[in-house]
Structure formats: C-alpha cells, structure tokens
Amino acid sequence: MSTAEVAFILAAGRGERMRPLSDTTPKPLLQVGGKRLIEWHLQALQRAGVRRVVINTAHLAECFEPALGDGARYGLEIRYSREAERLETGGGLLQALPLIDANQFLLVNGDVFCDVDYARFELGPGDQAQLLMVDNPPQHPRGDFVLAANRLRSEGEPRLTYAGIGLYSAHVLDGWREVIGDTADSRRQPPRFGLAPLLRAAMTNDRVAGLNHRGRWEDVGTPERLAALDAVVRNAARES
C-alpha cells in the first residue's frame, strides 16, 4: 500500500487538441459526469490517504484557484506551483519540489481519467518510480515501455502505454543535468526539460517498477473523446 501523503498534479498544458474548449477552460477543469476531471483525482487521492496536493499551472492559471480553492472542500490542502510559461514535466517538477516537500509522492496527469486505487502503489528499495501502465489506446498504438515481472524497460516488445500516473521518489531528479545535457532549455532559469529521459536512464539501472492497470483509463485529449467519456460515465452512474 502506498504511504504517499502528497500528490503532484500536472495541469500546466495548453491542450491544443482540445481546442476550442481549452481556449477558455484548462483541460483538467473540463467536466466529465458532472465533475471536473481534476476533481475525480482529488477525491480518489483523498480516499487513498493523500493529505496535500500540489498543482502546477501555466495556461489559464488564474482559473484553478477560484475553481478548487485551498482544497478544504475535498479534505485536502492544495498548493499551486505557478509557471510563467510551461516548464515541461521535469522542469515543472523541479520547481514544485519545495512545495511537495516529501520523500515520495504520487504524480498524476490532470487531463486523464482513471479508476485506479492510488493506495496500490508502493516503491521498492532503491526504486525511483513505479509507473501505472495500460493497454495501448488507438491514438498511441506503439506504447512506451516494456513491463516484465513488474519491472519496466525502455527497449523491447511488447510495449504498454504509460498512464501518466505513478509513485515517484524525490530522488528521480538527482543528476538531471547530466542526463538532459547542456541545452538552451536546461540553462534557462527556471530550466525546462522533460521527465522521460530521466525515467529511461533509471530503467537502464533497473530502478523503475511497473503496475499494470486493467480498469478504466482514458487520455481525454480531444472534444470527441471528452464527450464520449462523459456519456459513458453518466450512463454508468444511472445504472448503479
């Protein structure tokens, strides 16, 4: 069972494929089944024992605090990590680490829908992450990583898709400059870089575990997928 009491929700993206909806509403604040996407996560995280959630924001950042407040209504403390411009996942996490202030934390993409029990996650000794893996969706048929005996590798077949959800060690960013290299973005203040190269480097050293999820997961990337998911969730609620 996960002992993480802190979660980091990624909510800074522009959501180009979700336009025109994302022109006025950030993707995580769009509604599915009568709730904002991010609210499904907040409620599930609270049920799993999470007490503090850090949300990074950039696009339409001013929309989040009026919508979610300080988290009290969800039984949580919400902190906001505001990015003047999107720093990508690694850069956003680096900026948010002082607010996360924990040895391990759950990381959640705010624009996915998933019924995973967040209490399932557990970091093994020396592991830098445990990633949730799902079957490859039609829009991502080649997948991301290979899952074998609950360990993840970046090369080989068959591949599964990273769900955008995982349990991370705060040490996942250790030595990030050596992995990312000297680039214009890495020299910026604050730096901008992705997390995937760091995960692949950790996989090379067998420090990333995987958790296979067979339940519902949707990458809510377009208005059409949002509408389809909304219909499914509403129908399921009526039948329950």
Summarize the SSE layout with pairings:
Blueprint: E1 6-10, H1 21-24, E2 31-32, E3 35-36, H2 37-47, E4 52-57, H3 64-68, E5 77-82, H4 88-100, E6 104-109, E7 112-114, E8 129-134, E9 146-148, E10 151-153, E11 161-169, H5 176-180, H6 184-187, H7 196-204, E12 208-212, E13 217-219, H8 223-239
Number of helices: 8
Beginning-to-end CA distance, first to last residue: 28 Å
Rounded radius of gyration (Å): 17 Å
Q: How many β-strand runs? A: 13
Order of helices and strands: EHEEHEHEHEEEEEEHHHEEH
- Helix content range: 25-40%
Keywords:
25% strand; 240 residues; alpha/beta; 7-stranded mixed sheet
Structural summary, described in words:
It is a single chain. This protein has a seven-stranded mixed sheet. A two-stranded antiparallel ribbon has the order 2-3. A two-stranded antiparallel ribbon has the order 7-13. The chain is built from eight helices and 13 strands. It has helices spanning 21-24, 37-47, 64-68, 88-100, 176-180, 184-187, 196-204, 223-239; strands at residues 6-10, 31-32, 35-36, 52-57, 77-82, 104-109, 112-114, 129-134, 146-148, 151-153, 161-169, 208-212, 217-219. The protein is an alpha/beta fold and 240 residues long. Strand 9 and strand 10 (151-153) form a beta hairpin. The mean pLDDT is 93. The longest helix is centred in the last third of the chain and has 17 residues, at 223-239.
Give a quick precis of the structure.
The chain has eight helices and 13 strands. The chain is of the alpha/beta class.
